[in-house]
Amino acid sequence: MLDLINFYLVPGIVLGSIYALGAVGITLVFAILRYAHLAHGDLATLGAFLALAVVSAIGLPVYAALPVAMIVTAGVAVGVDRLFYDYLRERPKIVTVMASLGVALMIRSLVQVIWGVDAESYTRGISRPENWWGIRLKDREIATVAVMIGLVLALQLFLLRTKWGKAMRAMSDNPDLALLSGIDNRKVVTLTWIIVGGLCAASGYFLGLNTELKSLMGWQMLLPMFAAAILGGVGRIEGAVIGGLVVGIAEELSVLVLPSEYKAAMAFAILLVMLLVRPTGLLRGKVL
Amino acid sequence: MRKSSLAFVGVLLGATALAHPASADVKIGLLGGVSGPIAAMAPAMIDAAQLAIQQVNEQGGLLAGENLVGVVGDSGCNPQNATDAATKAVNIEGISAMVGPHCSGAVLAAANSVTIPAGITMITPSGTSPEISKLADKDTVFRTVPSDDYQGRALARTLLERGTGKVAVAYLNNDYGKGLAEAFKAEFEEKGGEIAGFAAHEDGKASYRSNLAELADGGADTLVLFDYGDGTGLTILRQALENGFFETFIGGDGMKSDAPIRELGAENLGTFYASSPVGEQSAGLEAFNAAFKAIGGDPNAIFVTTSYDATFLAALALEKAGGDKAKVHEALREVSNGEGEAILPGEWKKAKELIAAGTAIDYKGAAGDHNFDANGDVPGTYALWRVEGDTFAVETEMK
């Protein structure tokens, strides 16, 4: 029983938290801008490597690198939007989706040019887990789950309680009506990208912290993240979190019943079944 | 108008007619993974092949003084690009022999769909998958690098000799990992060892703890890991060490990378071993090293010796076959079968004279003697390495 928790459930929850952070960003873009953002994974990679730069060049402690990486990545996300997506806003959405694929390739190449293609890590050596009444947890695993919950709660409060949060929800509901009510759509878009960029960096950072940093790490997470967002119901923050956790735990538990080479197919299977059985997602998403 | 276009066609015809006798070049294809996952290794390998071609041309050229030309093609390390590049090399460039492609999957595709039907001899310097031995190739596919079959089997025997009778095996789900794992398993079980877990894994996942837990369930305390030390292998090794799965870790040549030492620290890798081919010191290797350094190459780069040997062997076989494409594969066996006057890397002039005189020659290359077996494979020498300081040191020879 303890083995099941230690080696299947705990990794599943940690992995799920990382997926959740990415899926929340995907769901936000879906709800407010209404397209699938394929550069999401590579933006996460960039965030992870920016944190590495902060750790290795400036020498900040590993955890202090997270806010710095989040802020810089948020800036990059806004810049990418201004440079590429803004210009395509009035065109069919599929054009923007394809543009985001191009942006993904650009960001990845940039990471490879600056940091190379070798695996890197924030700290050298290994960290063994501590024993909490039989349950083996590492500090970084607790931090991953705690920060994910903190960020999502903060985002929920922001959306529900603040003026700009309400503006974002209004635009998600009906952009034209929001514009007529005096909401500056451009500012809402910028705000969305700041939040999405920050969440991206957080998910990349925690993936890097729990494993290694590789230039393809984010791209390989893209499918599980999309599966999580759709599973939870597009446009639902809490749905994306539940979706992320379900996909993460399902991937780890699948090893119990399936040959382990099919682990990677788990996200595909969930995505497929969900689209067939309940395309609206668990929480009937559409708008914020 | 009609007259002028007729004249134009006439000029074109004349030009092509003239072009033929003027091109006294003999071409060999150099197919490599110029783009794709081994892009970092490919340039040095192609430089080594070009060195062999340069030496041939400097020392009298091929046959009646024809120029040997290397036609470089990009196989992209994947089956589709390899087939395209091989088709172009064989049908458009009209190559007489092919060196490459570099990756196992690319070799299998290019051989099956292009070179075997065309009867062109192919020598790969770095395709190590055991599947290549099984090709129905009419004896036209060779390699100057040992098959992973040898490595897997040698590793199995070495472990049993060291008293490890029970292991779990995790391998990356591709041509490399699968070939190595299956060769290892066959030999290990045949010699009385017990495989207490045998599972493939996909590349690029964040957690392999459930895979490890599943493998550890069999009760083995040694994990044999066929993967890349710069990729998933590193993640698995880290998670196994952090969570106390297994006590001893054995990797193949892919795991003998600096990344585990750099990222995990040598102090944590006291029970980590990796097997890899070792070059035997020989006059041939020294001759190659000196020549490759002279053109600014790094003789320690991976697969440069095998690339050089493959190209030089192709040239020797072409000379022996009198330039006849269809006879190159027979000639290849004649120039390197352990009998005759020894030819070292760079000794083109000597070889050319001996072939002209009808004397048997035997090429002793930089990477080994290359006495091909029935499958066109060469045996390899391997060693098991341990981590010492911040690098690898030989733990034991593998037989």
From TrEMBL, chain A:
Domain of life, per lineage: Bacteria
UniProt GO molecular function: L-isoleucine transmembrane transporter activity; L-leucine transmembrane transporter activity; L-phenylalanine transmembrane transporter activity; L-valine transmembrane transporter activity
Keywords: Amino-acid transport, Cell inner membrane, Cell membrane, Membrane, Transmembrane, Transmembrane helix, Transport
Record bears the keyword Kinase: no
Major localization class: membrane
InterPro entries (alphabetical): ABC_transp_permease, BCAA_transport_permease
One Gene Ontology cellular component: plasma membrane
TM stretches of this protein: 12-36, 43-60, 94-115, 142-160, 188-210, 264-283
Pfam family, one: BPD_transp_2
Cellular compartments annotated: Cell membrane
Recorded topology in the membrane: Multi-pass membrane protein
Keyword Cell inner membrane part of the UniProt annotation: yes
CDD domains: TM_PBP1_LivH_like (cd06582)
GO biological process: D-alanine transmembrane transport; L-alanine transport; L-isoleucine import across plasma membrane
Family affiliation: Belongs to the binding-protein-dependent transport system permease family. LivHM subfamily.
The protein's name: Branched-chain amino acid ABC transporter permease
TrEMBL record, chain B:
Signal peptide limits: 1-24
Subcellular location: Membrane
CDD domains associated with the record: PBP1_ABC_ligand_binding-like
InterPro entries in the record: ANF_lig-bd_rcpt, BCAA_transport, Leu_Ile_Val-bd, Peripla_BP_I
Gene Ontology BP annotations: amino acid transport
4Fe-4S found in the keyword field: no
Alphabetical keyword list: Amino-acid transport, Membrane, Signal, Transmembrane, Transmembrane helix, Transport
Domain (Receptor ligand binding region): residue spans on this chain: 48-389
Pfam families recorded: ANF_receptor
Protein's name in the database: ABC transporter substrate-binding protein
